[in-house]
Amino acid sequence: MDVTDPGRGARWDATWRMILRQEANVSAALSLLMLVIWVLSGGSFWPRWVWFALAVPLALQVGVRRGLGAPRGQRLLAVHSAVTVVLALMMLAIWVLAGARGFFWPAWPALGLGTALAVHGWIRHGFATDRERALIDRVEVLTRTRSGALDVQAAELRRIERDLHDGAQARMVSVAMNLGLAEELLDKDPQSLAELLAESRSSMLTALDELRTVMRGIQPPVLADRGLEGAVRALALHLAVPVTVASEVPGQAPPPVESAVYFAVSECLANVVKHSGARSAGVELGYRDGVLSVVVSDDGDGGASVTAGTGLRGVARRLEVFDGTIELTSPAGGPTVVRMEVPCELSSPRT
Amino acid sequence: MRAVIAEDLTLLREGLARILKAHDIEVAAAVGDPVALAKALEEEHPDIAIVDVRMPPTFTNEGLAAAISERARRPGMPILVLSQYVEPLYARELMLSDAAGVGYLLKDRVADVGAFIDAVRRVAGGGTVLDPDVVTSMLSHRDRNHAMARLTAREREVLAYMAEGRSNTAIAGKLVVTPKAVDKHINSIFMKLDLPLDADDNRRVLAVLRYLQAD
After folding, report:
1. Distance from CA of B180 to the nearest CA of A (A)
2. Looking at domain B2-131, what is its CATH homologous superfamily?
3. Which residues of A touch B110 (CB under 8 A)?
4. What kind of architecture, by CATH, is found in domain B141-213?
5. pTM value?
6. Which of A55, A107, B123, B166 to pair with A11, CA 20 to 30 A apart?
7. Which chain B residues are Cβ-neighbours of A166 within 8 angstroms?
8. What residues have CB less than 8 Å from A62, skipping those under 6 apart?
């Protein structure tokens, strides 16, 4: 599939599937026809050879197509494997259809094909040095996390635009409408005017509130003012569940790491409040051997999983960008512990 | 006069309804999505539909798409499209086939209640109303178009007001000149844009269309 143009790839895919379906239909019709002819004419059961002849090209097409679907760089080997499998099955089929008697000759060609495939595989994978393999792995990780980071970012921007459009902006439009109407009512209907003004004021205050919420979602001001520990403490104060915060981080992590970790803690604590039924929770921030670690634990019901919601998966993708990891243990009955680690350098502590 | 409102945000739907009612425009139906809009137009036969650009299910521009398809189904059905941001591209799409009875305004304009009600009535009467923001942004691209480049600065100004749906008298008031002078400018615009003399009723709309299509 063409990476630069998924549309074309998808179209070609659909066309190919259609062609294959047509071929399968024609083959099925032919097979049936042969069966009918055999029933009418009798003799040895020769239609099996026609079926075989029809099946081989179909199997080859499916196999090659599958092989081509493999990621770039592994395609040739995948196609080779598919063709090998089809050929081996073909020879086995010939042997069986011929009566499955006597010497099992397909063993020899199968051995030859298998050796060729093994050599191909060895050349492809065995030749790379350790350093090359490490680089290949690294590139794969970077490619994956980069696209993950961009997805997360794009989703965030969409959410922010939506929140502003449907929230603060809509409220301001409605306030402007009310004020316009109020102007007209100035002499005519002071009672309705007063109601409109009161409604406008409360709408304006709600709009301000919504703006603050959006801003907190973009970059909480307290994170810039007080750093990660302070922001996490501030976050804990907002929550319905009591949260103890302990921190032993002798310095400041880079701002992007602080931001990612802050939102990760925020997501975890939101889960604690929403789902866990916990009576208390704790956040521990630590730093050892170049790794910032964050442990969020609660005494709730447990049973949480990374795959259940989008929240923790989003956290994982955010942390991956910094080669960070997330580890969740949450047996049924609790407690739930989320351990996150992000390698980073610390700068000197805030004064 | 009877109107149908399509706006998914309750707050704004109610605000709009309140303003229309205060000016003796009956709200035949107030709905929140394009499907309900189509149904309301079918059942109520209103004099005008006031449609928000962004509606469910995708919250992008289905209001615009609905307006265009409803006008294709019911030629001449007056529709005033409202939005929290205006986009000249959308204005052009909206007015491409026929600009009579079409309006496109920022929601902010509703705050000037008198002018908004005036715009609603003008669109319902087959007029064209374009948001000043769209006009300004299109004016800034005028140099790319040869026909537009032939107009004098004053004539472009007059044309911009025409695009906003202003009458000759109103334009005269805005520019502080006599209506007769405005008449002269408008005739000159028609000449320069090669608009035929016989289509007198439509020439203003045609001029606006020419203006919209300029790029």
Report:
1. 33
2. Response regulator (3.40.50.2300)
3. 173, 176-177, 180
4. Orthogonal Bundle (1.10)
5. 0.65
6. A55
7. 9
8. A20
